[in-house]
Amino acid sequence: MPNKNYSNQSDFFEQVYQVVKLIPEGRVTSYGAIGAFLGAARSARVVGWAMNNAHSLSSPVPAHRVVNRNGLLTGKAHFSTPSRMQELLESEGIKIDTDKIVDFKHHFWDPVEELKL
DNA sequence: ACTTTGACTATAA
DNA sequence: GTTATAGCCAAAG
Q1: Does a structural domain hold residue A32?
Q2: Nearest-CA residue relative to C1' of B7
Q3: Residue A70 to residues A3, A7, A37, A43, A59: CA-CA distances in angstroms?
Q4: A48 in a domain, yes or no?
Q5: Structure pTM?
Q6: Engineering a disulfide at A47: which of A18, A31, A74, A97 sits with its beta carbon 3.0 to 4.6 angstroms away?
Q7: Which nucleotides of chain C have an atom under 7 angstroms from any protein CB?
Q8: What CATH number does residue A49 fall under?
């Protein structure tokens, strides 16, 4: 699945969305982990940009399960309401303290480990 | 075609 | 533990 050969530009975005959709409920991952899985380890910011663009997608993407590597809800401001992201995560059993995921390591879902073949 | 921007990260102090 | 700095790279302006 990690396809470094992006013949179409939008394929990179597509890959990102695919991975995000594979994140199980109650689990979270980081932008960098997704980038690493896609073979673009240093493109974490681009992954974030892809999330920002995820609005224009027809199929919904659970972007609330993607946070930065500290477990901080950096993208909450981009949701319909700033509290939306936290609410969604809490509804999946994840606790949040001051915009930060409690016991982040325990909830972390690494696509490189979980999706490797 | 060039410059700016950003839902990031690693490193240094 | 913290803050500051510098790489990073694709999309937007």
Answers
A1: yes
A2: A75
A3: 27, 33, 18, 17, 28
A4: yes
A5: 0.88
A6: A31
A7: 7-12
A8: 1.10.10.10
